[in-house]
Amino acid sequence: MVAILSLVLNAIQIYSYLLIASILMSWLPNARESRIGQMLAKVTDPYLDIFRRIIPPLGMIDFSPIVAIFALNLASNGIIVLFNYFY
C-alpha cells in the first residue's frame, strides 16, 4: 500500500513540475508553439482551464496556475492524511 501512495504522490509532484514548466514557457515568445510547448499544453491546459473559469486573469497576470498548484498540494497532503488515518 505504501508503494501505491508513493506512486500517487510522485505523479502529483511530476504534474506540478509540468505545470511550472508550462507557466515558464508562457513567458517566452513562441515557446508554446514548439512541440514541447504543445505537448505541455495538451497535458496541463485541461486542468488549468478548470481554474481559469473560476479565476479570471487580472490584466495580463493569470493567477489560476498558482491556485492549481496549491490545489495539487492540498490534494497530496489530503491523501497523506487519509493514508495515515486508515493505516
TrEMBL record:
Belongs to the YggT family. InterPro entries: CCB3/YggT. The lineage of its organism: Bacteria, Bacillati, Bacillota, Bacilli, Bacillales. Keywords: Membrane, Transmembrane, Transmembrane helix. This is YggT family protein. Pfam families: CCB3_YggT. It comes from Planococcus chinensis. The chain crosses the membrane at residues 7-28, 66-86. The keyword Transmembrane applies.
